[in-house]
Amino acid sequence: AQIRYSIPEELTRGAFVGNIAKDLGTDVAKLAAANLQVLSDSDSQYFSVNVNTGVIMVSERIDREQLCGQNPRCFLHLKLAIENPVEFYRIEVEILDINDNPPEFPSDEVALRIYELASLGARFPIQPAQDPDVGTNTLQTYHLSANDNFNLNVKARTDGGKFPELVLERALDRELRAFHYLVLTAEDGGSPPQSSKIRITIQVLDANDNHPVFDRPSYGARLVENSPLGTLVVKLNATDVDEGPNGDIRYSLSSHNSAALRQIFAIDEQTGEIRVQGNLDFEEATVYEIEVEAKDMGSPTMEEHCSVVVEITDVNDNAPEVILTSFSSTLSEDALPGTVVAVIHVRDRDSGEQGKVLCHVSPDLPFQLRKDYEHQYSLLTSTRLDREHVAYYNVTVSASDLGNPPLSRHTILPITLIDVNDNAPQFEQASYEVLVAENNPVGSVLVTVSAADPDSEQNSRLSYSILRAGGTDPGLDPTRYLSIHPTNGQVTAKFPFDYEQTTYLQFHVEVSDGGSPALRNRTLVHVFVVDQNDNAPRVHFPRAGEDSATQFRISPSIVPPALITKVVAIDADSGRNAWLSYHLVEATDLGLFSVALRSGEVRIMRALQETDASEHELLVVVRDAGEPPLSTAVTLVVLVEEKGPEALQGSEARAADGGGLPTITLYLIVSLVLISTVSLVALAALGIRCL
C-alpha cells in the first residue's frame, strides 16, 4: 500500500504529519504488537511514529531547499515494516515550500562603465538575485528606480531563472552627466512578498563607439554525457566594425555563470571555441546555459553578450544499485515454500528506460524473486529445502537495467541451512552374519555394526543397543551373552560359546540418533557358532570302570574271522571332529586279532594253536579326526576256555548280542554322514552369501 501526506517545511519537532493507524484502517494495538518500524531512504530520520497512537510526527527540522534544491516538487519516502506477517507500506511525504528566503544579490552594489556613444537599445546585464524558494515563493520580478536614460528588461532563461538587463532608452551625454545612480529591487511572489536591493553606479565613458556583435543572439548544442575532455561544443563568431584595438575581440565566460559551470566548460579567448574541460553527467544536469561575452580592446572596452544552450543526452553509464533492506543469512531446512529470506531495494540513477531495473535469480536454485512494488523485491523460497543435499547456497541477485547495452550488478547472498532431525540412521548392511569359533575369549569383538546419519551435530550422534530378535528361543537372551559399545558398535562376548549347547543366535541391534525426538533403525545379526575339537571320544561299549578291563571268553575251536566283540564310541563334537577311527595299538599277539578301522569290530584272524596263550590283553584306541585329534583307550581281555553247553550258550548269547552291533554302527555312520553333509552345505552357503 502507498500513502501520501503533504506538510510545509520548517515545522517544529513533534508536529503532526498523519495518523497511520487511521489511514491504514487498522487498530493501534495491532500496530504496536506487530513491531512497527519506520525505514527512511535518506540518511536522516526526519519522522517518527508513536506506536501507541499511530501518529507520524516530525523528528528533525526539514529544510526543503537543503533537501531538494530548485526541484519544483520535493518528496521524502518512508517504508513502514510490520512483522508477523511481514508487510511493507510505502509513504510519500511531500514537503511544501514556504516563503522563508528573500531574493539576494551577490553584492550590495555594482559599477558599470558605459560609453557615451552606446546605441539606444544596448543591454547591460546585472548579476541576478538568487532565491532558493520555489514556485510563487521564488524570485518573480525586478523594479528599477525612476531615471531618464535606462529601462529595465527581465530576461527569462529556459531553466526558469530570471536576470535583469539595463536597456539604454535615451542617449547618454557624459558632459551633461558623468554618473548615474540607480536602485534595482528584486521581489518574490510570497505572501507577504520579500525583497532585496542593489545599488547600480553607472560611469559614462567617452571614446569607442561600436561594440562587438554576435552573428546570432543565441547558440544551441547537444552533447552526450561523459563526452571526452576537449570535445568542441560550439564556435562563436562576433564582429566589431571598429578598427585597430577597438575592433580586436576577446571572448570570455560571463560572470553570470556559476563556478561549477566554469569547471565544466572553457572558451578560447581568441577563437571563441567552447570546449569540454570537465565531466558531463546527465544525472546532475540535463541542460547547461552558458553566458558568453565578447569584448573589444578599445578604451573603454565595449562588450556584447550571447547565450549558448547545451543539452545533455543521457547514456547508460550507471549500473543498478542493490540495497538489502532486510536479510537473514541462516534458514531452517524445513522452511515452507514462500518463506521471505531477504527484502531488496534497487535503483538506477539513469533516466527513462535506462533507469528501469529488472531483478532475477538463477532458476536452478530453490529461490525466487517477488516484485512487491516499483524498486522493491522479496527473495522467497520456491521449493522444499534439504540440508543433507545442499547445506549452503550462494544466491546471486542480478539487477539489470533496460539500456542498450544493459548494465547489471550482481549481489551474492550467502545462505546457510540449519539442520533439523529429518533423517533416520541407516545401517551399512540390512543384516550381519558372523562365524564364531566356540571357546572364544571373553571380551573378543565378534562383529562391528556401523550406521550413518546424514544429519549434523547432535542429530547425527548415534547410540547402539542390543534387542532380542523375534523368533529367538526365549531362553537365549542375547544381552546375557553379548554386549555392544554404545558409540562404535563393537559387539563383544561376555562368555565363551559352547557349540554343544548353542549353535546359532540371532538378535537385533538398534541405533538411535541424538535428535529430539530421536529417530531409530534396526539391523538383524546372525551368529553361527563353529565347532572346535574340544571333546574326546567316549566309549559306550564295552563299559568298563576306570583302570579296569572288560573280559571276553572264546572257545579254543573258534573259527576265524569270528567276531569277538565290537567297540562302540561316540564324540559330542560334530563334523570331522566326530569322525572316529579304531586302532589296535597293543596286544599279546598282534597277529591273532584285528580291529575294524571304522566299525570297531574285534575279530580273531587265525585259528588258535596250543602254543597260544590262554589270556590275551588288547589295547584299543578310539581317535577322532579333529585338529589336533583327541583319543580314548579301552582295554579288552580275551580268555580262551573250554566250556560246557551252558558256557557255549552264554557265548552264543553274547555273540548274538554282538550280532546286533553292526546295525548300531550303521546308524551311527549314517547319522555322522548326514550331519557332516548338512554342516558342509550350510558353511558353503554362508561363504557364498558373505562373498
From TrEMBL:
Q: Which PROSITE patterns match?
A: CADHERIN_1, CADHERIN_2
Question: Which key words are in the record?
Answer: Calcium, Cell adhesion, Cell membrane, Glycoprotein, Membrane, Repeat, Signal, Transmembrane, Transmembrane helix
- Organism superkingdom: Eukaryota
The record's GO CC annotations read: plasma membrane
Q: Where in the cell is it found?
A: Cell membrane
Q: Can you give the residue ranges of the Cadherin domain?
A: 6-105, 129-214, 215-322, 323-427, 428-539, 546-664
**Stored Gene3D superfamilies:** Cadherins
**Which molecular function terms from Gene Ontology are attached?**
calcium ion binding
- Specify where it is mainly localized: membrane
UniProt-recorded name of the protein: Protocadherin gamma-C3
Q: Which organism is it from?
A: Pomatorhinus ruficollis (streak-breasted scimitar babbler)
